[in-house]
Structure formats: structure tokens, C-alpha cells
Design a protein that fits this description.
single chain; alpha/beta; 6-stranded mixed beta sheet; 7 helices; globular
């Protein structure tokens, strides 16, 4: 029998996003939570500030719904800004994130440097008017551990090769290692549901489609 949520007894614990996030933090030994956000556009500071306010402002609403506002005390997303990120490829951002993660895990989270969190980097954009932003607005979410598929001679000989799809940054595989994800659900549901490659594949939508976490 599933125990009730300690935050909201009317809800099962495994359905309470705040409870599940707390379990995840305790399991990983993390002190804070939140994705790493890469700023990849520098044309308009006002638009960027507006986006960040909307993006991070969605988190309290989710936490309040799950009676989990206590978790705001440990919500600490990282925003990385550098003009050199302007126009950077996904591969460049992924490599930068890997190096950043190795250096910061011990300092920020108090865990070993060889621990590798299955998180991602995001290139964010404003893509819809405010009244439609929740349906159409999205961020670009990157899987930090993705690698291109390597086929061996047996696969090729047996014809176990997928049909190539339209190239995205030169990649013709179905899973290109990044996806557009509805922005408002990234931080809370996304942080604990997109944990490993199986989770990624369960929610993956090849761009230009916009993925969702249901």
C-alpha cells in the first residue's frame, strides 16, 4: 500500500512531486536542486530577464500545489552566461557542461567529483506571447551523456540500421541528444523524472516537436 504524502495526506506520496524531489535529493546527497541554464542569446537583456523571471517563477506555483514550498529554500538553479555561448553548438555546450560539472559537484553539493548527475543544459528562448506561453513556449534541453550511435560491422551486415532522418546539427539519428521541452514543467517535474537514459527516451520528442512530461 502506498503511504500518503507527508505534505498532503489526501495524495499518495508517489504522486506528490515535492515528496519525490525530497527523496531524490536525499538519495543523491544533494544540498540544492535546479538545472544548469545556459544563456545563448545576448541580443536583448530585457527579454532575457523577462524569460528568467517567468521560467523560475513557475517553480513556486508547482511547489505550492504539492504543499512543498519548503523546498524553495534549496532551489538553486545555475545560470551560466558568457558571450562565447552565442551561437554555440549543442556539442560545445555539452562538453562545457561536463567540465563544469566535474569542478562544481564537490564544491556545491559536497559529493565526490566522479559522481555524475544526469542533468542537462538548456538554451532558453522566448517563443510565444504571454497568454500562450505555457502551451507554446519551450526551452532546449540537452542530455549531457548522449553520444552518437556507433554501429558495428554485424549491425550493418544484418541491416540493423535505422533510416536516416533530417539532419539536425549534422545528426541524422532519431535521438539527437537534445529536445525542445515545454518550459513551465522543466524544473520541478523535469528534475526528478528525467534521471537517466530510459527516462529521456520515454519523454523524448525529436525537434522541432515540443516534448512534455505528463
Amino acid at each position: 500500500m502506498v503511504p500518503p504524502s507527508k505534505r498532503d495526506p489526501s495524495m499518495d506520496a508517489d504522486l506528490n512531486e515535492a515528496d519525490q524531489l525530497e527523496v531524490l535529493l536525499n538519495k543523491d546527497g544533494f544540498k540544492t536542486w535546479g538545472f544548469v541554464i545556459y544563456r545563448c542569446t545576448y541580443l536583448n537583456n530585457s527579454d532575457w530577464e523577462k524569460f528568467i523571471a517567468r521560467f523560475l517563477g513557475a517553480v513556486p506555483d508547482y511547489l505550492e500545489f504539492y504543499s512543498g514550498l519548503d523546498l524553495l529554500d534549496t532551489f538553486a538553479p545555475t545560470v551560466l552566461e558568457d558571450p562565447s555561448f552565442e551561437g554555440a553548438t549543442i556539442a560545445t555546450l555539452r562538453e562545457h557542461f561536463k567540465q563544469w560539472a566535474k569542478a562544481s559537484l564537490k564544491e556545491e553539493q559536497g559529493v565526490a567529483e566522479d559522481y555524475y548527475a544526469r542533468t542537462g543544459a538548456m538554451e532558453s528562448i522566448l517563443s510565444a506571447p504571454e497568454e500562450f506561453e505555457d502551451e507554446a513556449g519551450f526551452v532546449r534541453m540537452v542530455h549531457a551523456e548522449w553520444q552518437p550511435e556507433v554501429l558495428d560491422e554485424e549491425d550493418i551486415a544484418n541491416g540493423d540500421v535505422s533510416e536516416p532522418e533530417e539532419p539536425l546539427e549534422g545528426c541524422t539519428e532519431h535521438d539527437v541528444g537534445w529536445m525542445n521541452m515545454r518550459w513551465s514543467i522543466i524544473e520541478l517535474p523535469g528534475f526528478h523524472k528525467l534521471r537517466d537514459i530510459d527516462d529521456w527516451q520515454a519523454y523524448y520528442a525529436r525537434p522541432p516537436a515540443i516534448g512534455d512530461i505528463l
